[in-house]
Structure formats: structure tokens, C-alpha cells
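hey so u asked for the seq, here:
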Amino acid sequence: MITSNGIGRCVKAQAAAFVTALSIAFAFAASAAPVSDIQGYPILEALQAKGQALAPDTTDWMKKWKGMNLDDSASYQFKELSGSTSINMKIEKIDSSDPKGYKSRGSYIPHNSAANPDVEIGASQLGALLGFDSIYRPAAPYELGPVGSKALKSLIDNAHISNRQRLENKANILKAIQSGAPLKGCVKAKKDDTNVALDEIANTHAAPNGAPNSSHPIIRLLQASSPQPVQGRTVTLKNGYVGDELELAREFSVIMLIDAVTQQWDRYSGGNVVIRKDDQGHAHFYATDNGGADIASSWSPRNLNWFSRFDRSAVQKLADIKKFLDAPATGYLGYTDPKAFVVDLGFYSLMGADVYAQRLTRNIGFVLDYVKATETKFGNAAYFQ
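ran it, C-alpha cells below
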């Protein structure tokens, strides 16, 4: 276990370790077949086969990406980079019937100093496994081939980049492309048009990299010592963004739960707590940026100490995953091999599957231990009623 000061050092070390991490990404043999032509979504499709309905946003992007091959220059084009500190590439599917001449297919994200594609994928799929994929921006594994890599290199070479972190990312990504190996990363859905940052919920000045704003009404409701949120009572998060108090509290509790499992260190630094509206105009949380995280060699309880009220069904589903990881013969969604499971979950590019499985098992175990200790202390108040 490391202290909060240790976390600060870990955050600073994240960028410094990027060159090494990116090298590791190409040193390891892939644990699964290269994903340069998306043919399926094993975990999401297993949930559907089990009878679980996925969010419309999830199924929509599953359809858009199915069969996508970014080396098919007759179907896809790349004209723009995205990202503030990270360097990503926007994906355009050529479509003459569209007034713009193309339809967005989101962005391709390689490893950046502050963007871990494995966790982008893993967090969104954990959201689905816990029954909350509606609040996660979809992502899927993708290895960029020679045509796509050439396009990314050209865009980077011709871009004016002055930000120090982006300059570091530029050098590292170009080095990875030069190696000639497929560029491991992910594709990530286009942001919802109604998404907006909710920095009011964060104390962005807290050391080492921000923290929840303890006086925000949603954060207060996530404390077991506070009154329970009430279904049907509305909360205004921002002008024009109004949602149900209980629903919003449950959603953010799940985001904090998954943040703890994935060791998210960049949720509260600014711009990374996001909300959006559904088709009826109701506000919801929207975990749009989950890449500032790492299934690290060290464990920290940093994210856990900020909340003590949980969604009971999400905790139970997390416990089901832990049971399988501990005793693979029990099976889970048709899996009997934890290594195959973690790769399909999205943890595939920086370390071996056995290491990912060990660390995921450890992290979920610590999270469940905290939930159990909180329940012992507060009883049913630790859960939404």
C-alpha cells in the first residue's frame, strides 16, 4: 500500500514512465489476435446472449464499428487530430450521402502519457458488466495497421504542437510507428453532443491531482452518514441539466467504484467529470475520459476514501467477477480462463494477460473489502435504498 504522497509521486512518474511503457507494448506478444478489423465484442455479446439489454449508445457504436478496418482507404479517411495533451486521430467513414461527405466513427487513441487505451476499454466494459454502460463512453481495442499508421504520422508531422506533454507524446508515438509493429490502442466513440464538464463537483486544486468537492450535493449523498437520496427529487447540476437525485447518486457511485478498481488518478484535475442529457432531456453522468488510470504494480486506497455509499447490484456483480477470478472453474459469462477474460475486457497491450489478471483480482478484492468494512460500520446506510 502507498500513501497519498506516494500517489503524487506515481502521478509524476506516469509521464516519465511512458517511454518504457510504450516499449513494453511492442515487446509483448499479443495475447489475442490483432484487432485491425473489428469482428465482434466478446464480453458485450455474452451479456446480450445472457439476456442483458445494453444501452442504445453501446449497441449503436457496436454496429458502427463492426467490420471496421482503418487500413481500407476507400472507406475511411483521417484529416484531423484531437486531444489536448494526448494525441488522438479522428476517424471519418466516407459517405457521399452525408452533406459533410463522411460520418464520424469516433477517434483512434494510441498510448499517450495521460491516456491508457486499455483502461478506456476496460472501464467502459466494466460499466456494462455492472449494468451501467449507459454512463460510459464506448471504447474497443484496435491495432492500427500500416495505412492508418502512415495517416497518423502524416497528421502529427504537419501539426503545430507546442504543449510539452504533446511534444513528448509526438516523439513516442512516431517512434512506435517507426518500429513497424501494429500500433496498439483503442477506438473511442464520438462524444455526445450534449456533454459538458461538471468541474463544480471537483476540487481541482487538491494535491496531488484533484479530489471530489466534499460540499457538492452529489458527493454528500455518497457518504453513508448522510441521508439517503430520494427518487423523484430533482437536482440541478448545471443550468439546463436537471436529473433525478437517486439516479445521479447511483451513477456517480458506480463511476467512483470503477475508478477505484482501475486506479484512476485524473478524474478530478478538471474537465474529466462530465454530464449529458438523454433523449428526454434528463441529466446523467457520462464517464467520457477514463484513460488517466493504470492497473499499477502498487495499490492505493485514494479513490475509496472519498465515498461510502454503493449500489448493491453493482457491488454484487463485482463480487461475481472476483469469484470467477479466484476460482476459474466456476465460470463466468462462458469464460473459464481469467487471462482470456481480461484480454477481452480490454487489458491487452502493456503487460502479459497473467499480470493483468493478478492485478485486477487484487484491485477488486481491495474494493470489496472496503465495501464490506463500510457495511459493517454503517449497515444498510452503506447502500442506496
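The longest strand covers residues 102-110. The chain has twelve helices and 13 strands.
lmk if thats what u needed
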